[in-house]
């Protein structure tokens, strides 16, 4: 991907990532390390629980979305700084074998008044499963250079 900067971006620009699948082993490994709740780590307890089976930690899903973003590099090698995530919402459980697709849209582009060589973009992210059902949404505020030759 070509390096892109604040000056290159427009509100309404969208992109969609390549689907990725969460396996049972990956769900269990992540949850054992970072979110060891029964619905994420114990197959029997998960089956007997309110979700009727094993589900991925929402934090796992969010971290895989971040990985997909880094791998996709929609702005090339342009340096960026994540500032904030707003309205992170887990809408539907993610189960082993679900294929997730990340959809992003630029909803705001703002040049800094105090440092005009940079600015922020606000994106809306929606993650859907293989049935096109939304499973996760959030807004992200990212700082980036306005043009080439600026480093953060």
From TrEMBL:
UniProt xrefs under InterPro entries: HotDog_dom_sf, MaoC-like_dom, MCH/BMMD
Residue intervals of the MaoC-like domain: 18-116
PANTHER family named among the record's database cross-references: BETA-METHYLMALYL-COA DEHYDRATASE, MONOAMINE OXIDASE-RELATED
CDD domains, per the entry: YdeM
Domain of life: Bacteria
Protein name: Enoyl-CoA hydratase
Gene3D superfamilies in the cross-refs: Hotdog Thioesterase (3.10.129.10)
Pfam families in the cross-refs: MaoC_dehydratas
Species per Swiss-Prot/TrEMBL record: Caulobacter flavus
